[in-house]
Amino acid sequence: MRSPERLRGLRTVAGAARRDYLAVYGVKTLIGSTVPRSVLQPLFLAYLGYLAGGLAGRRFAIVGACVHVLSLAAVVKAADSMTEDLAAGTLYRVRISGPGLPLVHLTRCWIYVVEAVVSALVAVVGVCAFFQEWRLMGALLQGSGLFVLTALSATAFGLAVAAVAALHPASPVLTNLAVYALLVLCGIIAPTDRLIAPVRWVSQLLPLTHGAQSLRALADGRPWAAQAALEALVGAAWLVAGLMLLHRNDRRARRLATDGG
Questions:
Q1: Alpha carbon 20 to chain centroid distance?
Q2: What are phi and psi of 169, to 5 degrees?
Q3: In angstroms, rounded to a whole number, what is the distance separating the alpha carbons of residues 202 and 86?
Q4: pTM above 0.85, yes or no
Q5: How far is Cα 211 from Cα 218, in angstroms, rounded to an integer?
Q6: Rounded CA gap, 13 and 238, in Å?
Q7: Running DSSP on this structure, what letter comes out for residue 189?
Q8: Nearest to 39 by CA among 129, 110, 115, 112
Q9: What span, in angstroms and rounded, lies between the C-alpha atoms of 215 and 142?
Q10: What is the pLDDT of residues 30-66, one digit of tens each?
Q11: How many CB atoms lie within 10 A of CB 137?
Q12: What Cα–Cα distance (Å) separates residue 257 from each residue in 93, 164, 217, 254, 261?
């Protein structure tokens, strides 16, 4: 497939992703479910941080919880869009498309990146206002670009999750397990240096870890660029891994004449 034709095809996919999203998640749904969840879950995690470490622990957890909100769209919904196609029997259409499964699924994820970033910023405003952390709110809103970077990294991780989850009949369980793993391992509520060494090494290879650290450094007035660069590096590695796993999924499906991959 030639590059101009591929680009036109991907633009069509991007437009279809927006229409599909709005058909499922209308304004009432977003206001009634997505927005409250974006605020209430970080509030709960912030209280856990307070119980664990007082006001400093609450501030630590507020940043981590707002970052973790990114995974609800960038990992769960992005992965579920592929498994829902599988359940509906329409995934084969994606497989036989000109651009191919990896590029089509990656393109469809743009709308979830947007939702992830908006949800995280809503969480920042809602949670910081609730606790009257006005300076922290201002610092985190100034770091909106870091939320975008971390959302892209989480989406790349979501590609790999989607490729693996599509092979399993309990795919929603696997995607939720991935999100809980990020919650536990990525320094969301407590610093990663409290983890045992092997688990701490794993945490450095996951999205959100360095993004949360860079936002905390920004809020504290410390250098943050090195952690942001590490988050970008982790995201790039997961992007390569995700695309390779989707390509493998596609090749296996074609070889076995099955839609599951």
A1: 19
A2: -65, -25
A3: 31
A4: yes
A5: 11
A6: 22
A7: S
A8: 129
A9: 10
A10: 888 889 999 999 999 999 999 999 999 999 999 999 9
A11: 20
A12: 13, 18, 50, 5, 9
Q: What is the pLDDT of residues 80-109, one digit of tens each?
A: 777 766 666 666 566 666 667 777 778 888
3-state secondary structure (DSSP) of residue 187: coil
Cα(51)–Cα(49) distance, integer angstroms: 5
CA–centroid distance for 103 within its chain? 18
If we measure between CA atoms, which residue out of 189, 192, 149 comes closest to residue 63?
A: 189
Q: Which amino acid is at 171?
A: S
Residue where the block lists tokens 């919904």: 77
CB 156 within 8 Å of CB 239: yes
Instruction: Label residue 82 exposed, middle or buried (CB < 10 Å: 0-12, 13-18, 19+).
Output: buried
Question: Distance between CA 125 and CA 39 in Å, rounded?
Answer: 9
Dist CA 159 CA 249 (whole Å): 11
Give DSSP secondary structure letters for 136-195. HHHHHHHTHHHHHHHHHHHHHHHHHHHHHHTTSTTHHHHHHHHHHHHHHHTTSSS-GGGS
> And the tokens for 17?
């992703």
* Cα atoms in the 13 Å half-sphere on the side-chain side of 97: 22
Q: How far is CA 172 from the centre of its chain?
A: 15
Count CB-CB contacts under 10 A for residue 234: 23
Cα end-to-end span (Å), the chain: 23
